[in-house]
Amino acid sequence: MEGLIISNISNLYQVKVENKVIECSVRGRIKQTDLSPVVGDNVEIELLDNEDKGIINDIIDRKTYCKRPKIANLSQIILVVSLKNPKPDLLLLDKQLAYSEYLNIKPIICINKIDVGDREVLKKIHSIYEKIGYKVIETAAKENIGVEEIKKILKGNITAFSGNSGVGKSTLINKLLNRDEAKEGEISVKNKKGKNTTTSSFLYEIDEGYIADTPGFSTFSIEEIESKDLAHYFIEFTDYISECEYGDCSHIKENNCGIKDALNNGKINIERYENYCKICEELKDKEERKW
User: Into which CATH architecture does domain 227-290 fall?
Assistant: First the structure.
């Protein structure tokens, strides 16, 4: 039978099969490969004599895979930005968007704390990101504003939330799950009990979909992207890359650059371009330090 891995604690997998959760270990032949099961994997399992336990025999092909934190088959990431306390970090947001594009996972921007922030800044964020095709949702999680709109887009999806400390990500998730206290990190704490355990994600079922509790998405690293490829993950750049004179154009210092021409003609937002340059230089520094 087939099921969905909703958690992994101490090398035991909780697999949701229809309306039942079965604790599973992994077949030895899978352990001997590089492909280990992770939360979000759809798997084929075999029940043992005790029907509350089983063995994972095979992993069904993944649609998406994220290395840090390890999770499979995410269909969307909701990127939470605070309008105030802390102020919007658009550099981090652009990193998150690039990484989402790299992973081929749909990103959605959620602007939280709209009840206390600057309306002009809110308009500016809408203007920048909706223009290039991203969905932007407004919320005030503590006031329950926008929560129903978020719920609608969770159906049929496995959704992760990413956001800087203090942006209200936990409050938003708690509202969606109708729970009173933040449980963020609960799974990580449990995992520390065993010597060979690792920090794991966890899937919470909600409205025919799942919310992924993913501790690793609190901080964001995009080192998997090579600096030479970064422009391909700024979606408004892609139409102009072919217009560059040089095939290895970095789109920063070169002349006859299609992206810089588009920037000068108002087709690319200056702040997005400046953030691209900062992220590109950061990736280059890390690449040089590897050697």
Answer: Orthogonal Bundle (1.10)
Say whether pTM exceeds 0.85. Answer: yes
Spacing of C-alpha 285 from chain mean position: 24
- Domain 2-61 sits in CATH 2.40.50.140: yes
Q: How far, in Å, CA of 232 to CA of 111, rounded? A: 25
- Please identify, in words, the CATH class of the domain defined by 66-217: alpha beta
In the chain, ranges of CATH 1.10.40.50 domains: 227-290
Is the pLDDT confidence value at 198 over 50?
Answer: no
HEC profile of 218-231 = CCCCCCCCCHHHHH
Rounded Cα distance, 20 and 39, in Å? 16
H/E stretch holding 55 reads: strand 53-59
Q: How many CB atoms lie within 10 A of CB 106?
A: 18
166-178 tens-digit pLDDT:
999 989 999 999 8
